[in-house]
Amino acid sequence: MFCFTNVGAHWYLIKNTRLIMLLSILMTLFGLIAAFEGYFFLTHLHKPFLIFHPERQKALSKALVVWGVLLLLIGILAIISAWTNSILFIVSMVIIGCVCETLMAYSLMGYFQADQRKN
Asked: C-alpha angle 26/81/68, rounded to 5°?
């Protein structure tokens, strides 16, 4: 039979609280990165950045609008999920965020490859 002393139970609560706080901080950071990326895409629709030239490609400009809005929404929801302490909401936002970030990277690289073939 297990018997917890006051010290043991107190240490468990401190350790658990630290993990929850760390998870909240990391999810907030994840949400801020996604929201910043979405904001960046929405503010760079008509000017070149990195290797992309959305002012030359209308399809790329439309893709940036879609990805910008989507990433901004994911970022806001991830920040909200960080402070609700709902594990299901947090895990779903991590999965949705990772899948969308990966799809965004693949789709934008398609525009880079199309631009390179023209040159």
From this structure: 85
Are 71 and 38 within 8 A, CB to CB?
yes
Task: Choose among 71, 86, 78, 62: nearest CA to 35.
Answer: 71
Write out the H or E segment, with its range, that includes residue 71.
helix 58-82
- pLDDT digits over 40-88, tens only? 999 988 887 777 888 888 888 899 999 999 999 999 999 999 988 788 9
Distance, in Å, from the CA atom of 35 to the CA atom of 45, rounded to the nearest integer, reads 16
Cα 21 from chain centroid (whole Å): 19
Mind listing the pLDDT tens digit for each residue in 26-38? Answer: 999 999 999 999 9
The closest of 62, 57, 94 to 77, measured between CA atoms, is 94
